[in-house]
Amino acid sequence: MSFSEELAAKIKNRSARVGVVGLGYVGLPVAVEFAGAGFTAIGFDVNRSRIKALRFGRSHIPDVASSQVQALIKHGQLKVTDQEKALGSCDAIVICVPTPLRKSKDPDMSFILQSAQGVGRHLRRGQLVILESTTYPGTTRELVLPCLARKGLEVGRDFFLAFSPERIDPGNKNFTVTNTPKVVGGITANCARLAAQLYQTLVSRIIQVSSSESAEMVKLLENTFRAVNIGLVNEVALMCHRLRLDV
C-alpha cells in the first residue's frame, strides 16, 4: 500500500491524528472541529499561557465555547501542547499562523517560516501538511516546500503538501468552519486529493483548484475585493454625509 493510500484510509476511518499549528482565531476552531468530527486533534502553540488555559478548558476565542473545549479535552479528543516534537506523531498537520504586515506594508513571513521549519524537523513519510495562513501566491511551493524536502523525501509520493486558505469570519453565527466553502490546491494532484478528502470530513463544499498558487490567489482576491468594497462604501458614506443624505 502506498503512503497516499494508507493516509486516505486513515482519514476515511477517522484514525488519522490531525495537528494544528497556531491556536488563534483560525486554528482553535479548526482543531475543535476536527476533534468533534472523531479525529484525535493535537493543537500546537508557542504561547505557553494559552496552552495552560486550554488544558484547563478555558477558551480565548469567542467563537469557541469553553464548555466545548472542556468536553473535548476530558475525552482525549483534543490535546494541546507547546512541544514541537508532538508534530511527528500527526498524520496531517494544518498550519494556521498569522501573517501580519510590517511597517513597510510587506507581509511578515517569519511565523510561516518558523512553523514550516518546525514541521520539517519532525516530518516523516506519509504525512500531509496544509498551509492555511493568508499569504502571497507561491508561498507554499517556494517557502514551505524547501523546509520539508530537506530530508530527501519526494512531495506527492513520500509526503503531501497543499494550501487551503482560512475563511473564518470571527463572530459570524451564520457561516462557520463547516458551512463555508473550502478552496484546496496542492503541489501535486495527489496532494490536493488528500487535502480535499481531509476537509470533506468537516466542510459541506470543497472547491479543488489547479495548484497551490491558484488557492493562494483565491484568498488574495477575496481579501482585496472585500477591502475595495469597504473602501468604496466608506467614501460614499462621507459624500452622503456632506450632502445630508442617508447612505
List the helices and strands and how they pair.
Layout: H1 3-12, E1 17-21, H2 27-36, E2 40-44, H3 48-55, H4 66-74, E3 78-81, E4 92-95, H5 110-121, E5 128-131, H6 139-148, E6 160-163, E7 182-186, H7 189-200, E8 206-208, H8 212-242
Parallel strand pairs: 1-2, 1-4, 2-3, 4-5, 5-6, 7-8
Antiparallel strand pairs: 6-7
Helix pairs in contact: 1-7, 5-6
List keywords for this structure.
alpha/beta, 247 residues, 14% strand
Report on the architecture of this protein.
The protein is of the alpha/beta class and 247 residues long. Helices cover 41% and strands 14% of the residues. The protein contains 8 helices and 8 strands, in the order αβαβααββαβαββαβα. Strands 3-2-1-4-5-6-7-8 form an 8-stranded mixed β-sheet, with helices on both faces. α1 (3-12) packs parallel to α7 (189-200). The longest helix has 31 residues, at 212-242. The radius of gyration is 19 Å and the shape is globular. The N and C termini lie far apart (62 Å). The model has no long low-confidence stretch (mean pLDDT 96).
What would you call the quaternary organization?
single chain
Average of the residue pLDDT scores? 96
Q: Which parts are unreliable, with pLDDT below 50 for 5 consecutive residues or more? A: none
From N to C, what is the helix and strand string? Answer: HEHEHHEEHEHEEHEH
Please give the largest β-sheet: 8 strands, mixed
Report the span from N to C terminus: 62 Å
- Beta-strand percentage? 5-15%
Enumerate how many helices there are, as a single number. 8
Structural class: alpha/beta
Please give the order of strands in the largest beta sheet: 3-2-1-4-5-6-7-8
Give the radius of gyration: 19 Å
The outline comes out as globular
Number of strands: 8
Helix share bin: 40-55%
